[in-house]
Specification:
Layout lengths: L4 E2 L18 E2 L2 H7 L16 H8 L5 E10 L2 E11 L4 E5 L6 H8 L7 E6 L2 E2 L5 H8 L2 E4 L11 H12 L4 H14 L16 H12 L6 E5 L7 H18 L2 E5 L3 H7 L2 E6 L2 E6 L1 H4 L5 H8 L1 H13 L1
Parallel strand pairs: 5-10, 5-11, 8-9, 9-10
Antiparallel strand pairs: 1-2, 3-4, 3-6, 6-7, 11-12
Helix pairs in contact: 1-8, 5-6, 5-7, 6-7, 7-8, 8-9, 9-12, 11-12
Bound molecules: adenosine-5'-triphosphate and magnesium ion (MG).
Magnesium ion (MG) binds next to helix 3.
Length: 317
C-alpha cells in the first residue's frame, strides 16, 4: 500500500468541511503496512497478546470502561448479579463464557441499548447509565461497534455502507466521504475493488472486514466486537485475529470483544473475563485463566476444544 493517509475524523462535524482535510495526519509507512493488506489466513493462530509486563504498565492508567455492581435481568432471569470489571486504555479485553451467560447483554448494556436494574457504568470517566439519547450521542460517536451478525445493509455496496456512517455523523463532502471510505476499507485489508461490491458478493471473511471498516469509519477510540470470527473457516478467522491486533496497534484502539473462539482469545486478548452463573468467574490473561481452579473455567479450557486451542497456543509461543 502506498502513501496511506489516515484522516483523523473529529467525532463532531467540522464547522468548515473544506478545512477538514487540513487536520489529516500521515500514518507512518510501518503503520500502514501493519494495518493494511494482511491476506486472509496468512497468519498462524497462536498466542501473541501483550506480555504481563506491558499489561501492568497500561493497567495503571484510568480505565476506559469501569463497571461497578451491575445487576441485569429479564423478568426472573438474572443475567448479571453484581458484576464489576474495568478495561484499560489500549487493552484488548474479552468477554467469554458459555452460551446465554450474558456476554452480548453486557455489551448491549454498555452501549446503552439495554437497561440494567442497578449499578454503574463509567465510560471515558463519565457515568453513562441514565443518559438520554441526546446526551449519549457525543459518547457514542467515540465508539465503533460490530454486532454479532455483521449487520451490513445488503442493498448498499461496501463503500456505501462505510460512507453512510460518515454522511450521518460528519459534514464531509461526497468526494471526501468516498476517499475516507476507501481508506477505511484498505485498512481492513480488503482489495480496492471490494468497495464497489455488495455484501452478498463477498466471502464471510471479507464481510467481517467490511463490517470492521464500517465500525472504524469515525476513528473510534473504543471498539466493540461481538463474535468477530463466528462462522469463519480457521484461515479466515486467523486473518481476522491479525487484523484486530494490527488495528489496535496502528490506531491505538481500546477493544472489548465477545467471543466463543478460544483461538482468538489466545491470539489477541490481553485479558479475558469468564462469565457464568451471573458472575465473573475469573479475569486474567489466558495463561492465568488456564491455571484457575473454578470447574466451569477448567471445563472451558480443558474440554476437547479448549485443550486443542491451548496446545496450539503454547506451541506457537
Ligand atoms: N431481549 C431479551 N429478552 C429476554 N431475554 C433475553 C433478551 N436478550 C437476552 N436474553 C436472555 O439473557 C441471557 C443472556 O443472553 P446473551 O444474549 O447475553 O447471552 P450470550 O452470552 O451472548 O450468549 P451467546 O454466546 O449464545 O451469544 C439468556 O438467557 C437470554 O435468553
Ligand atoms: Mg451473544
Amino acid at each position: 500500500m502506498k502513501n496511506v493517509t489516515h484522516i483523523a475524523l473529529s467525532p463532531f462535524p467540522h464547522p468548515n468541511p473544506d478545512e477538514a482535510t487540513s487536520h489529516s495526519t500521515k500514518a507512518s509507512k510501518n503503520d500502514a503496512q501493519v494495518a493494511g493488506y494482511l491476506p486472509e489466513g496468512r497468519a498462524q493462530r497462536g498466542g501473541r497478546s501483550r506480555t504481563n509486563e506491558s499489561l501492568r504498565e497500561f493497567q495503571n492508567t484510568e480505565p476506559v470502561i469501569a463497571i461497578g455492581n451491575l445487576h441485569s435481568r429479564f423478568g426472573q432471569n438474572v443475567v448479571h448479579d453484581n458484576i464489576s470489571l474495568s478495561v484499560a486504555p489500549g487493552e484488548i479485553f474479552a468477554l467469554a463464557g458459555g452460551s446465554g451467560c450474558g456476554k452480548s447483554t453486557l455489551l448491549r448494556t454498555i452501549l446503552l441499548l439495554q437497561k440494567p436494574v442497578s449499578g454503574s457504568i463509567r465510560v471515558f470517566g463519565r457515568e453513562v447509565l441514565g443518559l438520554n439519547d441526546e446526551q449519549a450521542l457525543p459518547l457514542r460517536r467515540r465508539f465503533g461497534v460490530m454486532f454479532e451478525r455483521g449487520a451490513l445493509f445488503g442493498s448498499l455496496t461496501v463503500a456505501e455502507n462505510v460512507g453512510m456512517v460518515l454522511r450521518e455523523h460528519t459534514r464531509l463532502g461526497k468526494a471526501l466521504i468516498a476517499e475516507v471510505a476507501a481508506l477505511k476499507i484498505a485498512l481492513t485489508g480488503l482489495p480496492p475493488d471490494a468497495g464497489a461490491k455488495y455484501p452478498s458478493e463477498l466471502s464471510g471473511g471479507m464481510r467481517k472486514r467490511a463490517a470492521l471498516a464500517r465500525a472504524i469509519a469515525l476513528d473510534p477510540e473504543l471498539l466493540f466486537l461481538d463474535e468477530p470470527t463466528a462462522g469463519l473457516d480457521p484461515l479466515s478467522a486467523a486473518g481476522i485475529d491479525e487484523l484486530i491486533l494490527s488495528l489496535r496497534n496502528a490506531l491505538g484502539l481500546t477493544i472489548m470483544l465477545v467471543t466463543h473462539d478460544l483461538d482468538l482469545l489466545w491470539r489477541v486478548a490481553d485479558r479475558v473475563a469468564v462469565l457464568g452463573e451471573g458472575h465473573i468467574l475469573g479475569v486474567g490473561s489466558m495463561a492465568e485463566l488456564s491455571k484457575m481452579e473454578h470447574p466451569i473455567i477448567r471445563n472451558y479450557f480443558y474440554g476437547p476444544r479448549g485443550r486443542a486451542a491451548s496446545e496450539q497456543a503454547w506451541k506457537k509461543r
